[in-house]
Amino acid sequence: MKTHNQKAWFFVLPVLFLVAFNALVPMMTVVNYSVQETFGNNLFFWQGLDWFENILRSDRFHAALGRQFLFTGLILLIEVPLGIAIALSMPRKGVWVSVCLVAMALPMLIPWNVVGAMWNIFTLPKIGLAGYFLNDVLGVNYNMTQDPVAAWVTIIVMDAWHWTSLVVLLSYAGLVSIPEAYYQAAKTDGASNWSIFRYIQLPKMKTVLTIAILLRFMDSFNIYTEPFVLTGGGPGNSTTLLSIDLVKIALGQFDLGPAAAMSLIYFAITLLVSWLFYTLMNKDNLN
Amino acid sequence: MQKRHIVPVLYILFLMLPIYWLVAMSFKTTGEILSGFSLFPQTWTLDNYRTIFTDPTWYWGYINSILYVSINTVISMVVALPAAYAFSRYNFLGDKHLFFWLLTNRMAPAAVFALPFFQLYSAVGLFDTHIAVALAHCLFNIPLAVWILEGFMQSIPKELDETAYVDGYSFPRFFITIFVPTIKAGVGVAAFFCFMFSWVELLLAKTLTAVAAKPIAATMTKTASSAGYELGLLAAAGTLTIIPGAIVIYFVRNYIARGFAMGRV
Question: At how many degrees (to 10) do helices B110-123 and A9-34 cross?
Fold first, then answer.
């Protein structure tokens, strides 16, 4: 039971101040840019909602948004089932548990641009392990700097390599919280492996899986550094995800107005989907 | 070994392959790398590492990264502990909205903030300092730390607080000598996550620094693009960025999952 106490606000004030400094001031700057046009020299002209209309109607934005949803969708479809499957087959006791946990968490602790650089070195034709193996041993014509399909496969495999462990660790934490007695009861009833999974393991993993999906959604939807270092958005525009396109507009072309409007639309989409997940998650907790 | 254990074994092998390749590359000479494929380094060389440890632009990159990551972790933990306590123990006006608002900052694409952050930190005169990066990373690390700590604190019964007050403890004394030690696993995990997300983030760190506080990751991007194809050097620098993570992860291995679940397992 929690008690009502308005003085608790004093405890959250430092957090509020620090986060607000970092969140509100830049956000206001973005809002400010999004309704103005500038020709340099700090001259700004009121533009109203034109940038928003332009962005929402531009084919370029639609294409980048489409690629972004495709990427995030594929990531969730691959990483969530794979993560659950790996967690189910992991050992539950003994030294191997620690070995598994440390080895699996390792990719998540590598700086994101190093992940991109590492996969670049790994997939270089003739020089990289994967590039050499695919081209010269298996005879597949693999070159991700020229072939959009190869580039897509590479960024998806890279992300699966980088983040599947998150789903594994969370599912595993859910699994080990199931008391042994549940399994014994299931055994006595002669339950199949599938029904054990469906009626005992899956319900126990529900909360952690919601968190895993929420985190994977947010992070893959906002992904920038890894694919940028690996493919630079190419070949052509084939792997130009939303944030790569945004940085191109903002820092490459210095079109501050359109970039700001696009940022706000982008943020609104992330917020909306995440809010849906968050509401679902809290509903689960109440039940 | 049971048959089903083949799955995690294969998975870990898959995880280790690119890492192995990075480490192997770091011990090869540029000549060997460009001359073609070799599974193991033919002529082992430490030249790549020697360059990093003797060239100040390289090793200062590491020092800078470690400095701002440490400052960020300390700031985040100091402010997040009392806030998480307030969220876990009290109802107050707007608490749920505030909590969700904090969470939304974890969702904002960093790309959105790159330019405004540059302008903000230039305006307050902190551009190219460690404290600027440390403060900027608070944007996503403080909400995360509050979230994780609140989860851990919820599992501590309120009777602990009440008993301490009955025994005549003042709030600060109770908080520091009893409460924080009780959730030390949570504190460790939250600190680990602050360390981790500050260590792996590059976009903001790169935007907010030029020379004096430049992170190692930014030094690497510059090498990759400007100095031609020094893959061996790049691989050595990459290998060195994995080591701090590998060390800290060992200490929190049993709590990582609980941390990712924001203390809610």
Answer: 100
Q: Cα–Cα distances in Å, from B144 out to B109, B111, B138, B226? A: 15, 19, 9, 36
Nearest CA in chain A to B223: A117
- CA–CA distance, B158 with B171 (Å, rounded to integer): 14
Average pLDDT, chain B: 85
Kindly tell me the sign of the dihedral angle through the C-alpha atoms of B189, A2, A10, A29. positive
pTM, entire model: 0.87
Mean pLDDT of B75-93: 92
b (16+ CB within 10 A) / e for A40-67: eeeeeeebeeebbeebeeeeebeebbeb
How close, in Å, is residue A56 to chain B by CA atoms?
17
Report d(CA B206, CA A24) in Å as an integer: 21
Q: What is the dihedral of CA B200, B205, A211, A269, to 10 degrees?
A: -140
Q: Return the bridge partners of A4, or none.
A: B91
DSSP state of A2: P
Cβ <8 Å between A102 and B249: yes
The predicted pLDDT at position B222 comes to 67
Its CATH class, for the domain covering B55-261, is mainly alpha
So where are chain B's domains?
A: 1-45, 55-261
- Is A177 within 8 Å of B135 when comparing Cβ atoms? no
- In chain A, at which residue ranges do the beta strands (DSSP E only) sit? 3-4, 36-38, 44-46
The distance from CA B31 to its chain's CA centroid, rounded to whole angstroms, is: 35
Distances (CA, A) of B246 to A110, B243, B249: 9, 5, 5
- CA B249 to chain A, closest CA, distance in angstroms equals 7
- Taking an 8 Å cut-off on Cβ atoms, the answer to whether B89 and A3 are in contact is yes
Segments in chain A below pLDDT 70: 1, 39-43, 281-282, 284-287
Q: Would you call A138 exposed, middle or buried from its count of C-beta atoms within 10 A (0-12, 13-18, 19+)?
A: exposed
Per-residue pLDDT for B111 more than 70? yes
Instruction: Give the largest Cα separation in chain B, rounded.
Output: 75
CA distance B255 to chain A (A): 9
Residue environment code for B14-24, b if the CB has 16+ CB neighbours within 10 A, otherwise e: ebeebbebbbb
Q: Does B184 have pLDDT greater than 50?
A: yes
What CATH code is assigned to A57-286?
1.10.3720.10
Q: Which DSSP string do the residues of A93-149 spell out, in sequence order?
A: SSHHHHHHHHHHHGGGGS-HHHHHHHHHHHH-TTTSHHHHIIIIIS-----TTT-HH
Q: What is the mean pLDDT of residues B177-183?
A: 90
Instruction: Answer for the pair B264, B151: CB distance below 8 angstroms, yes or no.
Output: yes
Q: CA-CA distance, B130 to B198, in Å (whole number)?
A: 12
Distance set, CA B94 to CA A225, A269, B102, B207 (Å):
35, 24, 12, 34
Quote the percentage of chain B above a pLDDT of 90: 21
Closest CA to B102 of B76, B128, B123, B124: B76
Q: Where are the domains of chain A?
A: 57-286
Question: What ipTM goes with this model?
Answer: 0.85
